[in-house]
């Protein structure tokens, strides 16, 4: 596969959609991002990485971090996390409290905000420092020691974090948080505020295409748990549009409101695309189109 | 691949679970089925079929018919069906009215009962006889002219059909049914009451592994639409346990409360497993375990 | 109390609001009503009746009939009806299916449509002809043998009755209907289609001001049950605006989308006001204002 | 009316129910209360007070404080509070987040916890010290300078306050709190933790029977606003059993999980009853029965 040529074609296809949609507005640090950016990178299972466009420019990973915190919790503590968070799609907007109430404080899956807070709480209990644990993992996998939190974004998230605070206190009322709400929120906001490029993210998520094996050849997860992460990404990874993403793109994927999406082709490669304009579900308009076209060109959908 | 040997091993693995769970009780004709039955069949993309156990014994297909009616509507009328039914997981029990109300009569997906009623209504409009259209298709693909409706089951479904009648009237109140409620219900109940064996079903769904091509080499669906059916099966095909099915089995699958499950390995083969004991979500206990083991043995999960 | 003078003042006060709001549109027979009509009548506990404006002109009683069917069921069958329908406000639009699902087919109260269908079903079981039973009662109390169903409205209700059919089938699926759905709906639609004037309705509901005693001095209900009807009217009688009606008017009241409202001042009198323009909750704009002013002028709120 | 004799009879009637139900368990300070206590007091509009049983023993007022904070906000700031909180029954358990989400952070009424938090926030903005404002009012009306917060209960509420913290953050996310969440919660928990006797409470709420006039003859509220408080108490004052309370007792009432209930007979008197055993809705079992019997004996229901 000539990845570079495919990425060129995909970028050309997606170009007219760049700037469409709406850049995330809920915090100023995100609202200021240039809507015209577009980058895409692919890391194959051999560790080779390719990219086009703004593929080396860091952006705010936001909810993409949820895939990494899930993997790290599985790596550190195994499948016991599934006692505290489900594996089913939510069928509701990503920050809904409704389902949480009907299901007694057990979030539907680890990629809605409530579920990610539980995963962060668990990672904090397992490691003593959830934020630093993730940062070190991402630096190691991307080979980029400059991967860092954006303190302005983290502070801004905290300032506008009442909805997440409500979710955290709500789960605490059901006994589904072990650490203090303020600790969990702090680490959660820091993880969301990590800045990485498409290149960094494609490399950092390459273990998901390699059935759990890291870039240095050591194993992060057993194949069974890597498969779990991919399955949950496919059914729950793109907010309330997971069904539509499966239907159009047909790959496990995890998006963030920073405009990034990581997608996995098991056994082959990991992709990361970035363009800040979001559709009404919170997924990058040009990013989804690019991934759709990539699977069309390569025939590599899982379906 | 020595399918016969693999099926033997899978059957041996699942055997201890046969009889576990609860046979569907809501109509007498289903409640009387022998809980100890187990069969599994595989039809590969070349049309070869293998099976073990009770793989040639007909059972009530129930909701498995929803996958065929979706495919037939796409074949007859194309993607306009997606204006009237969504592609997202429901996040709620399969017969819930709640989401339908919040979403103005547009069912979340074609595999919840409300969505299947809309699909049946559309198939009726496109063909003039939704029930017969499906029957003829299933007979042709399975090569079995004896495939038929079970009139006792269809009558029993109708007698206990108030919940489906409520769904149908509710959608009619939003203008999302074109035919009279009684007509739609009649064809819907007939489709659910079709009796087929694992062998018949694996052959009949082989077009989904063949990217839309029927057993006689003609094309039922464009590859793009076959992929849509598979994607919706993966995210919505096993009631409120689709996430867990994706996580354990990792294949597009459609289950029925008769105890059958059809699963697809795109490009390779279609499986059908049957065992009447159901878990709390309505999926065959031994059937899910068998498919889980099949993907473990073959390494053929999509993830 | 010089009722005639008070009614004159109330009518003058409400006059500027007549024509405001929206005449019910869901069936043609209601949409054609002249929005400029306004009438008000009062029947005191001694059987004296007064009125001003269009107080002798018949209109479609619609949901006001729900108060009479509740009273007749209590009269015929006593308090066992409360096993099948609750006494709590619904907190949701009057035709919601959501709560019904969470509460296993037991409607919240007898004045939401679902609850009224259960009451009609019970009245049918108790009398063999729910519609005629109500008609005879209303003719007797009003002293008007011309009180009748409007067959055009009843047919129109049935034609646009999918939502009510959904509710009825849904409750039937929980075993909370004894008669066939079509029978219940037929009697329900006939009751809604009764035409009466303010004069007729004030007289017909006078037993509620008289603690259960009919106009001929015989007792329809024990005082305890008359109090129950009044209490449920206050907490649930005006759709999703019962709290606001209690807060503004402070009387038990039952409204209908025909623009009528019956209100009760226990121990003193029964009022009926009519003006077809409805607010967003389905209550007569000028009617609510008139009742509000009546309680202000007389000081006769229950609070 | 010989109040003393009526109270004796009511107490004798309720006696067999004392100890029934369950004392509130969610904080230790409440769980330790003796279930066998029962007291009842009545304050008539002339300021005369009578009581029987444990009517002079202080208990935790809990949600009864919500009626006072509403009255004080109306007194200090007028009806603008109704822009931020509704007047409709909730139709859901008292601490539900569901409705709050569907209604964009505007609580249904001031007596569910979310609504009371908004009222407390407003009282804090209007007075600079919501807790002290209420305490001073209650001391003045009861004539008892010993009315005080129980610091143990307040601390315990805060420790188990995650559900209320979730509600407060959730409303803050909609912009419906002006003060910091921690400030609002502190004052809210202090108000709940006030200890008063039946005697104190009957006197303190006497202005509601006197159409807004305090015990010293000055006016706290215009008659119109006193009527509003009574109306909201009737439709929303007893958690998810307001309809049933209206139906049985037929009076405006506000209950608390400490086992107290204040009820108002406009123009006549205010009652307070206390017995710690609660029904499944959180209302005192013996208390509701006592009020029911009081209205039966006196014939003083509003219906």
From TrEMBL, chains A, B, C, D:
<feature type="binding site">
    <location>
        <position position="63"/>
    </location>
    <ligand>
        <name>substrate</name>
    </ligand>
</feature>
<feature type="binding site">
    <location>
        <position position="188"/>
    </location>
    <ligand>
        <name>substrate</name>
    </ligand>
</feature>
<keyword id="KW-0378">Hydrolase</keyword>
<feature type="binding site">
    <location>
        <position position="239"/>
    </location>
    <ligand>
        <name>substrate</name>
    </ligand>
</feature>
<comment type="similarity">
    <text>Belongs to the glutaminase family.</text>
</comment>
<dbReference type="InterPro" id="IPR015868">
    <property type="entry name" value="Glutaminase"/>
</dbReference>
<dbReference type="Pfam" id="PF04960">
    <property type="entry name" value="Glutaminase"/>
</dbReference>
<feature type="binding site">
    <location>
        <position position="157"/>
    </location>
    <ligand>
        <name>substrate</name>
    </ligand>
</feature>
<dbReference type="GO" id="GO:0004359">
    <property type="term" value="F:glutaminase activity"/>
</dbReference>
<feature type="binding site">
    <location>
        <position position="257"/>
    </location>
    <ligand>
        <name>substrate</name>
    </ligand>
</feature>
<comment type="subunit">
    <text>Homotetramer.</text>
</comment>
<dbReference type="InterPro" id="IPR012338">
    <property type="entry name" value="Beta-lactam/transpept-like"/>
</dbReference>
<feature type="binding site">
    <location>
        <position position="113"/>
    </location>
    <ligand>
        <name>substrate</name>
    </ligand>
</feature>
<keyword id="KW-0007">Acetylation</keyword>
<protein>
    <recommendedName>
        <fullName>Glutaminase</fullName>
        <ecNumber>3.5.1.2</ecNumber>
    </recommendedName>
</protein>
<feature type="binding site">
    <location>
        <position position="164"/>
    </location>
    <ligand>
        <name>substrate</name>
    </ligand>
</feature>
């Amino acid at each position: 596969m000539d990845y570079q040529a495919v990425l060129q074609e995909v970028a050309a296809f997606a170009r007219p959609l760049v700037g469409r949609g709406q850049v995330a507005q809920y915090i100023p640090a995100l609202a200021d991002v240039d809507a015209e950016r577009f980058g895409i990178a692919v890391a194959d299972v051999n560790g080779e990485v390719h990219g086009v466009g703004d593929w080396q420019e860091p952006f705010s990973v936001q909810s993409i971090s949820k895939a990494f915190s899930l993997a790290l919790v599985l790596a550190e503590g195994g499948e016991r996390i599934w006692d505290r968070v489900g594996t089913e799609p939510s069928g509701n907007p990503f920050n809904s409290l409704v389902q949480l109430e009907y299901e007694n404080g057990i979030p539907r899956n680890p990629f809605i905000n409530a579920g990610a807070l539980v995963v962060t709480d668990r990672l904090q209990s397992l490691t003593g420092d959830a934020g630093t644990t993730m940062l070190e993992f991402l630096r190691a996998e991307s080979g980029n020691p400059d991967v860092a939190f954006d303190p302005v974004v983290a502070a801004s998230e905290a300032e506008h974090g009442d909805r997440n605070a409500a979710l955290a206190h709500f789960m605490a009322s059901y006994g589904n948080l072990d650490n203090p709400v303020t600790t969990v929120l702090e680490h959660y906001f820091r993880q969301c505020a990590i800045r990485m490029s498409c290149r960094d993210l494609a490399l950092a998520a390459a273990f998901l295409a390699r059935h759990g094996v890291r870039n240095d050849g050591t194993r992060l997860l057993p194949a069974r748990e890597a498969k779990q992460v991919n399955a949950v990404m496919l059914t729950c990874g793109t907010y309330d549009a997971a069904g539509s993403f499966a239907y159009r793109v047909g790959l496990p994927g995890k998006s963030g409101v920073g405009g990034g999406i990581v997608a996995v082709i098991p056994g082959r490669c990991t992709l990361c695309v970035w363009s800040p304009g979001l559709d009404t579900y919170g997924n990058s308009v040009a990013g989804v189109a690019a991934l759709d076209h990539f699977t069309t060109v390569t025939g590599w959908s899982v379906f």
